[in-house]
Amino acid sequence: MRILLLGDYSNVHATLAHALRKLGHEVVLASDGDGWKNYPRDIDLKRKSKRMFYSIGYYFRIWWQLCRFRDFDVVQLINPVFLPLKAERHWLFFKMLRRRNKKIFMGAFGMDYYWVKTASDCKTFRYSDFNMGSQLRRRADNDIWVTDWLLGPKGELNRWVAAACDGIVAGLYEYYESYLHDWAPKLAFIPFPIIPAEVDESVLNRPVDKVRFFIGIQKQRSSYKGTDIMLRALQRCVTALGEHSEMVVVESVPFSEYRRLMRGCDVLLDQLYSYTPAMNALEAMSQGLVVVGGGEPEGYDILGEHELRPIVNVLPNEDDVYEKLCWIVEHRSELPRMKRQSMEYVRRHHEYLKVAQRYLDFWRERGK
Description:
alpha/beta; 14 strands
């Protein structure tokens, strides 16, 4: 098959492209590298500036590039907003892709209308990026997403693309649940793809005397993702149990550097309000780290996983995170076993070639 992957978040499409090529398919990945994360791509769609002169030139560059994207068997968009342009600019480009290629699919991999809408209903999820029980989480960094997606042109575009595409792929339980009510007939849940890391078993089995905790901070999304709360809990834990714990804190570094810094750590703190591990956490688990974050029963159930429980699930409050981190330090003899479970979880459910085959099966099935 000839496959075009357009846009990228969290290395999802770059990993998928690698797997599809291994399986013998022709793949083109065009993206802006997801900003400063700088994920690999075949065609660079990075926008250097939003100043008028650069914007006009960029618009025509995108036009010229998308005119060349034709005769693909499958086009998959990372999001309804798949280019670093305003939502209003996407309608024309989507129509071009729809007209010149055989099938077009949309990813439910992150922020979009259906995720914000469902998470804000205060019923579907016990907690999320947008609600805490029956109460909305009203913060400036949350309200901007509500304005963008529920009340603005992005939401209109999202609803239109969902109706016009051949199928929708959700990468997490939360995103699948967000699309299920409106788009069940064309919706599939396919786990995120991860390339299993090569880990020295002797290092993995080594007793841990001092637990190294790793946390990555994105300043603009810290309170939205809960890393501000997790960092405070971690600081408390290291202060209380510093003889047997330490923390590694990194802020807004490229993906390759992030992976390098994560190596040698034991535990990753990630996404306080999530039900399930996303790409960042899964990448860490593949390297043998234990994840503190989203590990709710719904996430295991959608995978059909009834044995492994590698994720240290936390409730979205500082005290619960603090207690779980202290438990890890006090029971650090359990870490080798937990690390092996992390790696096995990724092998079972996220191994990139298995995941790529599920994509191929879904693409072939839809639009027959």
